[in-house]
């Protein structure tokens, strides 16, 4: 089973990363677009020579916030990190994640998220799928 580790920049919070536009549609903020660009390029640069990992996945995210953060909720940052892993081609789809662990750590400089992704074995019949994906 393959395991990959990647250090990603600190993402914007899901609470502040979308702006409501005309007609009730939501648009990504410049901070979210910048994070996505940097994270996707980093993933592609580090893993471009490898094929996309085979689902299903176990994902462990270690959040080291910037030193300026006092109170924060890890769940507000998880979605942007996982979306970057999909867009960067590390994993096929976030709905293929069968186990996810979010872990909060002490602040670190400008903030970093350590993402550990593992391919896992499973019995597709256990989950009701034909091929396990």
What can you tell me about this protein's structure?
The protein is an alpha+beta fold. It has one domain (3-127): 2-Layer Sandwich (60s Ribosomal Protein L30, Chain: A), CATH 3.30.1330.70. It is built from three helices and six strands, in the order βββαβαββα. It has helices at residues 30-47, 75-87, 124-127, and strands at residues 3-9, 18-20, 26-28, 57-64, 97-104, 112-119. Strands 1-6-4-5 form a four-stranded mixed beta sheet, covered by helices on one side. It has a two-stranded antiparallel ribbon with strand order 2-3. Strand 4 (57-64), helix 2 and strand 5 form a beta-alpha-beta unit. The protein is globular and about 45 Å long. The mean pLDDT is 87.
Number of domains: 1
End-to-end distance = 16 Å
Percent of sequence in beta strands: 25-35%
| Contiguous uncertain segments of 5+ residues | none
CATH-defined architecture? 2-Layer Sandwich
> Strands of the biggest beta sheet: in what spatial order?
1-6-4-5
- Whole-number mean pLDDT: 87
CATH superfamily: Holliday junction resolvase RusA
């Amino acid at each position: 089973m393959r395991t990959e580790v990647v250090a990603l920049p600190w993402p914007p919070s899901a609470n502040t990363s979308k702006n409501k536009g005309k007609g009730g549609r939501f648009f990504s903020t410049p901070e979210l677009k910048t994070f996505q660009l940097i994270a996707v390029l980093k993933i592609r640069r580090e893993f471009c020579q490898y094929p996309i990992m085979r689902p299903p996945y176990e994902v462990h995210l270690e959040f080291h916030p910037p030193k300026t953060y006092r109170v924060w909720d890890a769940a507000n940052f998880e979605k942007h990190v996982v979306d970057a892993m999909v867009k960067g081609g590390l994993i096929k789809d976030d709905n293929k994640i069968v186990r996810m662990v979010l872990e909060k750590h002490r602040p670190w400089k400008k903030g970093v998220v350590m993402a550990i992704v593992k391919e896992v074995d499973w019995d597709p019949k256990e989950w009701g799928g034909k091929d396990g994906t």
